[in-house]
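User: Please fill in residues for this 157-position structure.
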């Protein structure tokens, strides 16, 4: 989809978290992962001022968590956020499988994937990093195998 750099339609941006959750509802149900979105998240996404960027950010990070879920146990993806020192911080924290330490330094590289060949392209996290860097933001990850993963997204408020 062509990028829209700036959108003044904040009401459309506010709808994105719930819309993405609906898109993944069936897959999340099968993977036994519950998606919990903090009440503050829709408003914080409006600070991106781009429907396209907000959709990509939410879609890619929710999709990664759903795909990382272990359907043998119940898991949760908590999406929360705040503003600190004029910086928006969103956290996408799951209690899924976690990322092995040897992969942590590679996950933002284009085409790097730990998924089977027919699932994904390995581009999602590199796209998120690029769009955030273009807006003066960043993404980092904290993960422990068997405990879960947290992606921390930051961008100017």
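Assistant: Residues filled in for all 157 positions:
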């Amino acid at each position: 989809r062509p990028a829209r750099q700036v959108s003044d339609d904040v009401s459309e941006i506010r709808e994105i978290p719930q819309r993405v959750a609906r898109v993944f509802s069936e897959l999340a149900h099968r993977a036994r992962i519950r998606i919990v979105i903090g009440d503050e998240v829709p408003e914080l996404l409006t600070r991106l001022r781009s429907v396209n960027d907000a959709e990509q950010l939410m879609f890619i990070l929710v999709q990664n968590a759903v795909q990382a879920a272990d359907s043998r146990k119940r898991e949760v993806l908590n999406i929360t956020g705040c503003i600190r020192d004029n910086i928006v911080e969103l956290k996408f924290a799951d209690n899924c499988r976690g990322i092995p330490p040897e992969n942590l330094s590679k996950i933002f590289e284009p085409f790097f994937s730990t998924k089977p060949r027919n699932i994904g392209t390995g581009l999602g996290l590199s796209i998120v990093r690029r769009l955030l860097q273009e807006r003066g933001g960043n993404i980092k990850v904290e993960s422990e195998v068997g405990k879960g993963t947290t992606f921390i997204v930051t961008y100017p408020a």
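For context: The helical segments are 10-23, 25-31, 41-45, 51-68, 101-104, 124-134.
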